[in-house]
Write a structure and sequence with these properties.
alpha/beta; Aminopeptidase; Alpha-Beta Plaits; 2 domains; five-stranded mixed beta sheet; 11 helices
Length: 495
């Protein structure tokens, strides 16, 4: 018995030691980087009544050609060593209760404001610029892409994950391929009108794709007809992959499990706070627990860019903002959840007593009504200043020095606790909700920032709250349980 116990102890300790060493090996595979490397004012959401908060992960697909494997798969050898672009950008939103998930893609050719960023590796500073969103990756790494998303959406991002060409192939092989469908024969090849192409060639029907075919499917653009339609093909691929992973019980197959672990840790770069096997495993389990019919894939509502309507797009004003608000408010993108008791409205901040009379308070009004789609409303700050004067705020003044500001939501900011009551009083005078009164170190006194949600009138418009599944009609939503999705092929690429 003593001998048996000794042998058993050695076996257990030996196995544990091997497991520990393998875990160290997997952790060593993971490449990490800074979460944020640019200017951002997005705020982390408050916990719900159960103490839960939603989780937002930005998934980035890089077109990097900085390795032999990437050059072999991605072509364009002359671009080796050049700054990578974020050709795939997809926000994964896990609801606070972890019962639903939303995926939102932004087309790579969307023109947005990219904030000031600093490359954490080289220390190089990049000034703010209005440019295509995929160029953000080359202006400070994934942390700059995160900052760009946060400024555009005001959605706080907890983590980022990035994968390159070679990583896509390895992951597709590790799970045994993914089923996809095309309505017609497709061949994404060079044509007289459009050079290049992914090389994807399939007959009409459903196919299990892996290795280079998986990458070709995800990169194909011309054969689908547009960049936003490429996002739809990517959504179909991910939905199919999720369904397959749910059907597989890889935890009873040690060989498959090790292959998946090896491929995943080698394929991914992640933000540093996510950089361990345990944290990635916990995240995977949270995603795996979401029913497929509670997963919704969407694309940001967009309109053609007037500066280049054939190639570039812009966020579609109110429709895009509605989607961002649903993410910020953790409203499910699907209607398949169980009806819940009506949630109580969040308690507003307790009312504070103003420190001075209205006529003695200096109030600055800023015009932030412009964005990449629309120019600022002329004299907007002056209009709101006059409305405040009629309410007794004789010292209100328009900020003529602040130009180029852009805020989706109108805010009343104050710098310190002693001015909170004054800021609340100003908000009340204009009909602005108390939830929009925020403390900020960016202002020196009570400041009204008139956003794009208030371009007309002198009384703040009442805002309707989005409901579950109430997505804009141009969000191209696909439910994760929909197995009938099949990509149509643009006529010039049929064969």
């Amino acid at each position: 018995m003593r001998w048996s116990a000794t042998v058993l102890a050695v076996v257990i300790l030996g196995t544990a030691g091997a497991g520990y060493l393998y875990l160290r090996h997997l952790n060593g595979n993971i490449r990490k980087g800074e979460l944020l490397s640019g200017d951002s004012k997005a705020k982390k959401p408050e916990p719900n009544a159960a103490g839960q908060t939603p989780m937002n992960i930005l998934l980035i697909g890089s077109d990097s050609r900085n390795s032999d494997a990437d050059v072999k798969l991605g072509g364009a050898r002359q671009n080796r060593g050049s700054a990578p672009n974020a050709d795939v950008q997809m926000l994964i939103h896990l609801s606070a209760d972890r019962k639903s998930a939303a995926f939102v893609s932004i087309p790579r050719d969307t023109r947005v404001d990219i904030p000031r960023c600093k490359d954490p590796k080289t220390g190089q500073n990049y000034p703010p610029v209005n440019a295509l969103i995929n160029s953000s990756l080359g202006r400070g790494g994934p942390g700059c892409t995160v900052a760009t998303w946060e400024n555009l959406t005001k959605v706080y991002i907890d983590h980022w994950m990035m994968v390159d060409f070679a990583g896509v192939v390895d992951m597709a092989d590790a799970i045994g391929g993914v089923d996809v469908c095309v309505k017609e024969n497709v061949w994404d090849r060079p044509t007289p009108d459009a050079p290049g192409g992914s090389g994807l060639k399939l007959r009409a029907g459903t196919w299990n794709i892996q290795h280079t075919q998986a990458l070709q499917w995800l990169r194909t653009r011309h054969a689908w007809g547009s960049d936003p339609l490429r996002a739809r093909a990517q959504h179909m691929y991910l939905n199919s992959m999720f369904r397959k992973l749910k059907q597989q019980n890889v935890f009873t197959d040690s060989g498959r499990l090790m292959d998946l672990a090896e491929a995943a840790t080698k394929s991914l770069q992640v933000s540093e706070e996510l950089g361990s096997v345990k944290k990635l495993y916990d995240l995977a389990m949270q995603l795996k627990s979401v029913p497929t019919d509670r997963i919704t894939m969407t694309t940001m509502p967009w309109v053609a860019d007037p500066e280049d309507p054939q190639a570039h797009v812009l966020p579609d004003g109110d429709n895009a903002e509605k989607m961002w608000q649903m993410l910020r408010d953790d409203v499910p993108f699907d209607k398949n959840g169980k009806p819940e008791a009506k949630k109580k409205a969040a308690s507003p901040a307790p009312a504070r007593t103003p420190s001075v009379a209205a006529g003695q308070l200096g109030v600055l009004v800023q015009n932030a009504t412009g964005d990449s789609a629309e120019a600022p409303v002329p004299l907007r700050a002056k209009q709101i200043t006059e409305a405040l004067a009629q309410q007794g705020y004789a010292r209100a003044a328009a900020d003529t020095a602040a130009t180029g500001l852009s805020e989706k939501k109108t805010l009343v900011r104050y710098p310190s606790a002693d001015l909170e009551g004054d800021a609340q009083a100003v908000a009340k005078a204009l009909g602005i909700p108390m939830s929009s009164v925020t403390k900020s170190t960016d202002v020196s006194g009570v400041t009204v920032v008139v956003g794009t949600d208030w371009r007309t009138g002198t009384s703040y418009p009442k805002q309707s709250q989005p409901k579950a599944g109430d997505l804009p009609s141009n969000s191209d939503a696909i439910n994760g349980a929909d197995k009938g999705q099949c990509m149509p092929v643009y006529k010039p690429y049929q064969w």
